[in-house]
Amino acid sequence: xxxxxxxxxxxxxxxxxxxxxxxxxxxxxxxxxxxxxxxxxxxxxxxxxxxxxxxxxxxxxxxxxxxxxxxxxxxxxxxxxxxxxxxxxxxxxxxxxxxxxxxxxxxxxxxxxxxxxxxxxxxxxxxxxxxxxxxxxxxxxxxxxxxxxxxxxxxxxxxxxxxxxxxx
Length: 168
Hints:
Elements: E1 4-5, E2 8-9, H1 10-34, H2 36-68, H3 75-106, H4 122-153
Antiparallel strand pairs: 1-2
Helix pairs in contact: 1-2, 1-3, 1-4, 2-3, 3-4
C-alpha cells in the first residue's frame, strides 16, 4: 500500500472514511436498536454501513502503521496507534450484534404451543448489547481522533494571519 499519494499521507485521507462512517454506524445502530419501525425498514441498511465502516478500519490502521514507521517515534504517536488498534474489535462486535438484532427481529413470530420455545428474550438482549457497543465505539473513535490530533499538532505554533499588502 502506498504511504503517500500526491505528497499527502494516505493515512490522513483514509482515516476520514473511518471518522465519518463509524459515527454514522453508531447513529444508525442506535436508531435501529431503539426504534422497532426503523429496525424493520432500515435495519439491513444500518448493517451495510457498519460493514463498510468495519472494512475501512484495517485500511486506516495499516496506512497509519506505514506512516508511523516514517516518523520520529513519540509517546503521542504510540498512544494513538494503541488506541487505533482497539477500534476494530468494538466496531466488528457492533456489526455482529447489529446483524443478529436485525435478523432476529425480522423472524416470524412463533405460534403459541410451538415445539421450539419462543426467543422473546433474544431481541431485548441484542438491543442492550447494540446500544452498549455503539456507545463504546463512539467513545473510542473520539479518543483516537483526539490522540491523533495531539500527535500531529502538539508542537505547532500558531501566528496571526499574514495578508498580502498588510503593513502592520
